[in-house]
Specification:
The chain is α+β, with helices and mostly antiparallel strands and 494 residues long. The protein has helices spanning 13-17, 40-45, 50-53, 56-63, 131-147, 185-193, 197-211, 221-243, 293-312, 316-328, 330-345, 357-367, 374-385, 390-393, 400-416, 420-428, 438-451, 455-464, 475-478; strands at 22-24, 34-38, 74-76, 80-82, 85-87, 95-102, 108-114, 129-130, 153-165, 169-179, 245-246, 268-269. The protein contains 19 helices and twelve strands. A hairpin with a 2-residue loop joins β4 and β5. The two termini are 37 Å apart.
Amino acid sequence: MTHHAPRFTFDNSYARELDGFYVPWEGDKVPEPRILLLNAELAQELNLDVDALDSDEGAAILSGAAAPEGAETLAQAYAGHQFGGFSPQLGDGRAILLGEVLDRQGRRRDLHLKGSGRTPFSRGGDGKAVLGPVLREFVIGEAMQALGVPTTRALAAVTTGETIWRETPKPGAVLARVAASHLRVGTFQFFAARGERDRVRQLADYAIARHDPELAGRDDRYLAFLRAVIARQAALIAQWMHVGFVHGVMNTDNMTISGETIDYGPCAFIDSFDAKAVFSSIDHGGRYAYGNQPVIAQWNLARLAETLVPLLHDNQDAAIRLATEELENFPEIYSAHWLAGARAKIGLLPREDDDDLGFVNALYAAMAGQNVDFTLFFRRLPQAAEGDETPLTDLFDDATAIREWLPHWRERLAQEGRDPDERKAAMEAVNPVYIPRNHKVEEALTAAETDADMGPITRLLEVLRAPYEEREGLEEYAGPPPADFGPYKTFCGT
């Protein structure tokens, strides 16, 4: 069957407007590119022909081995704080930007390849990716999308026909990733660290045009831009917390200007509620633990603010004061998002005040240290509203504290007088029944990597694409891990 070559309508603003912010670069020629997973729904959203893409030509393009017409392939420059230490030059060490396409809504989207070979930013690495981490990013990104969390997404997972050596030989792979942009806090740091103020301004103007066009031309646009990024990140991290997501490497080069989640390396979803949960093999001090994510987000945003100081005011002290005021608003903005999300999770109607904070915190205190399955707890909560507490209290090692909390909660619900069926439906619409359970993810990745069996991953994706809707026969995806699973650690995909 002959396919016509896949066509992309590129409009490459980064290449065009930010000369000096990247190195033109091509992906490696690989022996045998083959599309293993193609995200048909996303391809359609990007106005791409799914059949044309799902072909040998499509595989060559999405592996980086062949550049389609109109692509201006390049490796982007950025810096970053990694675990608190500053690296002045990171950049796309194993990735290239193919270009930008406008989707059906007219939104500009980057098409980016991860694992496409060495670039001038590789720092001694081989620039390659292996199948397991590529599939993990595919699965977790799609799960986040279905959960309603802003995220970069996978268009395809492509195998390359190479054997890549890590601790053991692994199948080589490339992830074709789609993002609102790949601008990071670290992109600003790269030029600020070199004292290139004009480039920081150029980058800020580009970011404003791309992500906050309503601010363009305003006298206070750089301060308003900082405020917008702070607001997006506060909203994003609150959503992470409510689905139990732990990013694992919240370095400044992994924080987007767009407010999308990026880089699913050592990431995981918590099983039992634990603020100290850490899943990264290299996070020895718990810097990026589940409960620390809001604090780290503010720290990362402070690094962005530092790069913008010269643009905020001619007087440095005044500029620092302006930036500091914006940063100091982060906890309050985050807290408002978090509380609104928490109210929805426990079936309370939205309110303006924050006097429910103590009430909600008491719930989390009751869960702490009790090995409570986070996802199941919220999913079973509607039953407890009707008085059937046992399925919920059974989740606790010691249910004393939660038994004290539940009557106060029911009293609050009674005051609101909401229709119980309507409330139950609203709670189920925000409390997922299916998340990427770590044991199910590992099972699926192992089958794909070791046995070349894509069945478990295809099935898992199917389950995760409708996370709020309980379905017959999927009980194994809804339950906690087996007792012998853990402690769970994941590793960077490099």
